[in-house]
Amino acid sequence: MTLGRPTQTSLVGAALFALTLGGCGLKHVPNDVLAKLPYEAKIELLESENDLAVAVDRRDEASAAVGRTKDQIRRARDRASAARSEVNQASDAVSKEIAELALLEANARVEWLRAQQGQNVKEEELAEKNVTCAYARYEVARLAIARKAKLEGSEKLDPEKFDQQLKDCEAKYAELKERLKLSDEASQAVRAEWDKAKAALAKKTFDARASPYVE
Fold first, then answer.
1. Which of 78, 133, 142, 203 is deepest in the core (most CB within 10 A)?
2. What is the DSSP-derived secondary structure letter of residue 212?
3. What whole-number distance in Å separates Cα of residue 95 and Cα of residue 86?
4. CB of 112 within 8 A of CB of 189?
5. Which percentage of the chain shows pLDDT scores above 70?
């Protein structure tokens, strides 16, 4: 069976990844070592290339979540400001009570979003570390293929050092993931306070003043 060639996109993409991530301090296989690697052998790199691409996509998604939540916090603060004005302008006891409940809900919303943003930042950090680990796995695969093909220069590269940098990265990733889990437990307590404030406002206004969505 004759294997097809890797797509031009995948090969160029891998090179761009190497250029982008080469400054992260990881050991890497010099491109000139792999210059004579047959296309059939490069097929074996596609899986690790794809894993790296997925990791980069996840990092970008995490970064986008930070940006979205930043906008949500700004809108939530505007909502709280409007609620404070409503309290001051209330003309009767019932209106004032509703306005005060709305202010409590708005403030709780801001606090929840701040907690969520803290979580988002940690998720972004975790995603960044995942990219580094994916790159380390990619380099392990590149070295293995280079040595298998007995390419000149590959014998000078120590596989144990490449394996160790991957193990170190994965250990750090596991540590960050555990921190994220603990942080999530704390942020959920803040979410519970917001839910409580929403429920009180919804009950008083027959669901007219408590959106189930984070605005």
1. 142
2. S
3. 9
4. no
5. 85
Q: Does domain 39-205 have CATH number 1.20.1270?
A: yes
CB 147 within 8 A of CB 139: no
- Report pLDDT for 155: 94
What's the whole-model pTM score?
0.80
What is the residue type of 176?
L
The string of pLDDT tens digits covering residues 140-197 is: 999 999 999 999 999 999 999 999 999 999 999 999 999 998 888 888 899 999 999 9
Q: What are phi and psi of 152, to 5 degrees?
A: -60, 130
Asked whether 161 and 27 are in contact (CB, 8 A), the reply is: yes
Q: Alpha helix (H) ranges present in the chain?
A: 8-21, 39-42, 46-89, 93-148, 159-205
Q: Delimit the domains of the chain by residue range.
A: 39-205
How is residue 12 written in tokens?
Answer: 């160029």
Left if phi > 0, otherwise alpha if psi is -120 to 50, otherwise beta: which for 211?
beta
